[in-house]
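Quick one, T. Sequence first:
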Amino acid sequence: MRKVLVTGIEPFDGEKINPSWEVVKQLGDLELSGAKIVVRQLPCVFGKAIDALNVAIDEVQPEMVICVGQAGGRSDFSIERVAININDARIPDNENNQPVDETIVADGPAAYFSTLPIKTIVNGLRESGIPASVSQTAGTYVCNHIMYGLLHRLAQPSCKVVKGGFIHIPYLPEQAARHPGAPSMSVHTVMNALELTIAIALHTEQDLRIAEGATH
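Structure tokens:
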């Protein structure tokens, strides 16, 4: 059976929970569109987050990887378009690292683009009544760090992962209650959005394979 790796991130910046992991952990062992969902939590630590992601990819051997992170202040399900080769931390990570203007991969390209069908996903989510958008920035903190590390891995000729990308989600309501005026999204809505995202991405890949087979 095909496998999809979905990751969340541990809490950071004084939060007791991280909505990405609160939702992602509920997807564990779910079978969706002919694929088994495998979940992992990543540390909110520069360097170690990418290391943990690479270990998970090696263990799971997934066809697709979707990484999810918290973006407090955002109001919708944000599909990231691009990761840039820079660590520039506004706050320390969970091991008190605070890199400023440092490259993620010394000899890597300036940026990588998501290999998920980002606009197809956004359109599908909106048609299902879920607020969603394409985001043009994943920031310069650990989320961007993870996304760049993932896409750098996918760019290697030996990598068998077909697709990968990053999604930012808002606070959960219980977090937003401590941040007056901040938007939030329920676990139920985010769960639905993630399941639909995975289904759309898998079916897009399947359709592509069928189309390629018809031309040979």
